[in-house]
Amino acid sequence: MTHKKIVFVSRKAPYGTNAAAEMIEAVLVTAAFDQQVHLAFLDDGVFQLARAQTPEAIGHKPFAQNLTELGEYDIDHVWVERESLAERGLTEHDLMIAVSLVNRAAMAEVLAEADILMSL
Amino acid sequence: MLHIVSKSPYADASLESCLNHWRDGDALILIEDAVVAALAEGRFSTRLKGLALHVLTPDLEARGLSVKALVDGAAQVDYEGFVDLCAEQPASLSWL
Asked: ipTM of the predicted structure?
């Protein structure tokens, strides 16, 4: 099987819709098929990574569990856009996992280098 | 890359974000509610001018907007044209 570079583009805040949760599931499934999997968080997607989430109170499962498992699934890179964080009043210290911080132009390059772009 | 935008920019930030990640050689197609962005007299016309811009004709017509002037350089395409654009570009991204 050829290794395609697949970039999952996550731009939605968690919990308001199921998009964010479904994307993480799709990421883990794709990684199981031995593809080159990248995950890009931009716009409201950066809110998915906030530490200290307690969504049980609003009837949702926490993201933390799945996201901290990304390393075990051989995800190649988790990219987070610096401007998206800053515009929303977050810093990298607010994030629950180690990520590759990139500015907007570098994020555009990450997207441009993908063989396949996935979004939900 | 072919950018596919489907949400009205008056209600959603996806077109804005798409334009912020634009690179030379990219192309854009506006479909569904996003076709409203293509009107020449609209607020987004200045941002869209000069880009490889395409607008899906059935979505324009459905909304009664095909009688309106579009941004300079905007090309109307049908579903076949949409498929051609996808085939011409190395990858496509739906800004959902």
From this structure: 0.91
pTM of the model: 0.94
Extents of the domains making up chain B:
2-95
**Non-local CB neighbours of B9 within 8 Å, separated by 6+ positions:** B15, B16, B34, B36, B37, B43, B44
List the one residue out of B3, B19, B16, B17 whose CA is nearest residue B86: B3
Q: What is the spatial distance between Cα B95 and Cα A42, in angstroms, rounded to a whole number?
A: 11
The residue extents of the domains of chain A are 5-119
CATH no., domain B2-95: 3.40.1260.10
Q: Which residue of A has its CA nearest to B23?
A: A108
CA distance B15 to chain A (A): 12
The pair of structure tokens assigned to B67 is 């009688």
10-residue averages of pLDDT along chain A (120 residues): 88 94 91 90 96 92 77 84 98 94 98 96
Q: Which of A19, A104, A114 sits opposite B91 (nearest CB)?
A: A114
CATH 3.40.1260.10 fits A5-119, yes or no: yes
Tell me if B91 and A19 make a contact (CB, 8 A cut-off).
Answer: no
